[in-house]
Design a protein that fits this description.
The protein has 107 residues and is α+β, with helices and mostly antiparallel strands. 27% of the residues lie in helices and 34% in strands. The protein contains three helices and six strands; from the N terminus they run ββααββαββ. The strands form two sheets. The chain has a four-stranded mixed sheet. α2 packs across α3. 20% of the residues are buried.
């Protein structure tokens, strides 16, 4: 199955949980063009902060999830595009995957 990870900024008390994205394991986060862009963008915007990946079950309580803020920033900067959502189970519409695409894949 594999270990799921989140990106943790201990300096700011923030996490990127990658929630509603099709990646959480090391190979997925690295190979997925959207999550790779998210990680790089966040690291570049927070140079000097204490940032690392952490097993998702070990994240400190009270950290703010900035996943959607990072996605919105990448959309505003024309790096990724939002193609809506894919609901996994119509009986549970809160379970969905965001359909995001790294626009640089078209270059």
């Amino acid at each position: 199955m594999g270990q799921g990870y989140v990106l943790v900024n201990q300096s700011k008390g923030e996490i990127i949980s990658f929630s509603h994205l099709p990646a959480s394991k090391a190979r997925e986060l690295t190979g997925n063009p959207v999550t790779a862009a998210m990680t790089t963008w966040y690291l570049l915007r927070n140079i000097g902060n204490q940032i690392s990946f952490m097993e998702e079950e070990n994240v400190p309580l009270g950290y703010c999830d900035v996943t959607n803020l990072v996605i919105n920033d990448l959309i505003r900067n024309d790096i990724i595009e939002d193609r809506g959502i894919e609901v996994i189970d119509s009986n549970e519409p809160e379970i969905f995957i965001r359909q995001l695409r790294n626009k640089w894949m078209d270059c």
